[in-house]
Amino acid sequence: MLQLVNLGHKSLADYASIASRGLMAELHQLAEPLRGKRVVHLSATAFGGGVAEINYALVPLMADIGLDAEWRIIQGDDEFFGVTKTIHNALQGDERGLTQQQQAIFRRYNEMNAEEFEDEYDYVIVHDPQPAAMIDHFPDSTARWIWRCHIDLSTPNMDVLNFLAPSLERYDAAIFHMKEYVPRNIGLRQAIIWPPAIDPLTPKNMALSADDAGYVVDQFGIHLERPLLTQISRFDPWKDPLGVIDAFRLVRQTHPDVQLALVGSMAHDDPEGWDYYNRTVAHAAGDPDIFILSNLNNIGSVEVNAFQVHSAAAIQKSIREGFGLTVTEAIWKARPTIGGRAGGICAQIRDGETGWLVDSVEGCADACREILDDPESAAARGRRGKEDVRQRFLMPRLLRDWLALFNRLDGNEVETPLETVGTAA
After folding, report:
1. How far is CA 387 from the centre of its chain?
2. How many other β-carbons are positioned within 10 Å of the β-carbon of residue 4?
């Protein structure tokens, strides 16, 4: 059988002080007809990246509200994950396609994982492209299969998308962060739009005092009396850590005391991450004011929280971005936040009101200077952003959306609306 991820317990009641009373009542109403239903999430990895972050909170909450929910990890090695990284990049617009050999590798590993999967569920949720073709091996399944896409498909490499299309068209529903990501030229049965969410009660997002945050970042050599800029993300060309370093160097021309931290995680399903990590280190060229840190330096959830809380500005200078939960996390901590004008970041930041959207290295540097020069105005944007996150991007709202979809697939009438986008084959 596929590897089961061990999860702790979570109680929905713990969110009562964060979520509205109306939302809490709606959750219990939606859950009532679903009690005892079996749900499985399938993904490529249990650590690193937004899918894992979400599932560690979402799956226990599904269980707490009455579903029989679990999370399993597919099997693969560098050969397979090298192919799926190519697929990931192509779906986000990279021109490189798949060779016949790579297509065969992808099919072979999906078939192998399907052989290890027991189709005894009411709902099967498949995250991202890696396990997307497993559905091909269950033509008589009685489960509702749902594909959850966490990446930006607005300008996909059509050869790669067409390769995946026969599998994707089998799913009962496909979920995307934004309507712009829904591919219009393949025949999805139904495409549903909702953004992801963060868990405000995890160690990464719980309240942390400025003193405690300072104590943590001090352990990594950060000078507490000097301003800190931080980007939290994987080492990936789409996240543009090299551009962040370039922006930092421009800021330092006028603010010589500034420091930069690039904090990421290395995931086993991202073999290119090591190459780009090394490129980032080389681009920093040994600068003592640039700190490049990862889980290999004992960076975990509390440390990420501390870096965000301590930073004068949080940066996510993505060129492509499915959504960008690190943006949500930083805004939830009321930090002045700068995001690349890309994908889901634009759905989170209202430029000039709750943060800064930038299109270039120079624009990123200008935003950093504005924050450093007028910290009170920057803090006001951060506070407005925090309330926006409370309303739109926290875990109880995401749980509601899933429950509403399960009810819809079962034919139950519910009042909770779900945004649906038509597709054309």
Report:
1. 20
2. 12
Tens of pLDDT, residue by residue over 296-325, are 888 999 999 999 999 999 999 999 888 999
Question: Which tokens is 302 given?
Answer: 């509390």
Buried b (16+ CB within 10 A) or exposed e, 133-163: bbbeeeeeeebbbbbbbbbbbbebbeebbeb
Tell which wins on pLDDT, 185 or 268: 185
pLDDT tens-digit series, residues 14-57: 999 998 899 999 999 999 999 999 999 999 988 767 898 899 99
Q: Which amino acid, one-letter code, is at 112?
A: M
Angle between helices 361-373 and 375-392 (to 10 degrees): 110
Residue 156 has φ and ψ, to the nearest 5°, of -75, 155
Give dist(CA 331, CA 339) in Å, integer: 11
Nearest to 291 by CA among 301, 281, 279: 281
Instruction: Quick: pLDDT tens for 24-33.
Output: 999 999 999 9
Angle between helices 241-254 and 361-373 (to 10 degrees): 50
- Identify which of 354, 274, 262, 269 has the alpha carbon closest to the alpha carbon of residue 317: 262
pLDDT category at 348 given cuts 50, 70, 90 is very high
Q: What are phi and psi of 185, to 5 degrees?
A: -115, 20
Query: Do 78 and 63 contact (CB within 8 A), yes or no?
Result: no
The token pair that represents 86 in the structure block: 């190519």
SS (H, E, C) the chain: CCEECCCCCCCHHHHCCCCCHHHHHHHHHHHHHHCCCEEEEEECCCCCCHHHHHHHHHHHHHHHCCCEEEEEECCCCHHHHHHHHHHHHHHCCCCCCCCHHHHHHHHHHHHHHHHCCCCCCCEEEEECCCCHHHHHHCCCCCCEEEEECCCCCCCCCHHHHHHHHHHHCCCCEEEECCHHHCCCCCCCCCEEECCCCECCCCCCCCCCCHHHHHHHHHCCCCCCCCCEEEEECCCCHHHCHHHHHHHHHHHHHHCCCCEEEEECCCCCCCCHHHHHHHHHHHHHCCCCCEEEECHHHCCCHHHHHHHHHHCCEEEECCCCCCCCHHHHHHHHCCCCEEEECCCCHHHHCCECCCEEEECCHHHHHHHHHHHHHCHHHHHHHHHHHHHHHHHHCEHHHHHHHHHHHHHHHCCCCCCCCCEEECCCC
